[in-house]
Amino acid sequence: MKSKSTILAVTAALLISSTGTALAEGSWSDFLSLSRKKEVAPITDATYNEECGSCHFAYQPGLLPEQSWRKLMAADALSDHFGENAELPEDTRTKLLNLLVAGSAEKSAYKRSKKIMASLKDGDAPLRIIETPYIKRKHHDIPENLIKGPKVKSLSFCDKCHTEAAKGNFDDDTVDVPGHGRWTW
Fold first, then answer.
1. Which residues lie closer than 8 Å to 158 by C-beta, 6 or more apart?
2. How distant, in Å, are the alpha carbons of 50, 58, 86, 102, 165 from that of 54?
3. How far is CA 116 from CA 4, 106, 172, in A?
4. Residue 158, Cβ neighbours under 10 Å: how many?
5. In angstroms, rounded to a whole number, what is the distance separating the alpha carbons of residues 74 and 72?
6. pTM for this structure?
């Protein structure tokens, strides 16, 4: 009986020490759930959705590493955010930066975020999600005319084809390319 409790205590300690990432993003109920975190963590922060999502798709933090978010959300970088002035009040900028860093790909327990990180070399900090090797590889066989056509325009518009992108679901089964239909790999 004593060995059984020792095994349980050791198992609990191992789980606690190896799940810091998972717990940073979720809760114990997430950890103990049998459902797998396949995609990327959805973002539900109203300020983020309002400030960033009013101009473009509100990209989930788990789609880029921390250093990318730090570069993108630097005060001087927001004054020329891909050709647009996206400056924010300092308290809002700091709040959103902290949100993005906390959920960045390397801190995420979600499978797709881990794949994004695995595709990057140490120190890589792409400024565009479509620059990550994983995302490039996932889209490499889609004809350019479908991507750059008037209904999609660019891979930057995730939600044009990924019908559940706002929920953090980029699964192939949810892809519907405007003007083409379902896309199967």
1. 57, 59, 129, 165, 170
2. 6, 8, 11, 22, 16
3. 39, 9, 16
4. 20
5. 6
6. 0.80
Q: Where do runs of H (alpha helix) occur along 83-155? A: 90-102, 111-119, 133-139, 144-147
Helix (H, G, I), strand (E, B) or coil at 175: strand
Backbone angles phi, psi at 134, to 5 degrees: -60, -50
Distance between CA 109 and CA 116 in Å, rounded? 12
Sequence-distant (6+) residues with CB within 8 A of 168 are 39, 40, 41, 42, 43, 60, 62, 110
Q: Which two tokens stand for residue 179?
A: 């003007």
Instruction: Fill in the amino acid letter for 130.
Output: I
Secondary structure (3-state) at 167: helix
> For residue 153, how many C-alpha atoms fall within 13 Å in the half-sphere facing its CB?
6
Q: Phi and psi (nearest 5°) for 177?
A: -80, 120
pLDDT under 70: residue ranges of the chain:
1-36, 185
Q: What share of the chain is helix, strand, coil (3-state, %, to 5)?
A: 50, 5, 45
H or E, element range at 6:
helix 2-18
CA distance 75 to 78: 5
How far from chain centre, in Å, is Cα 174? 17
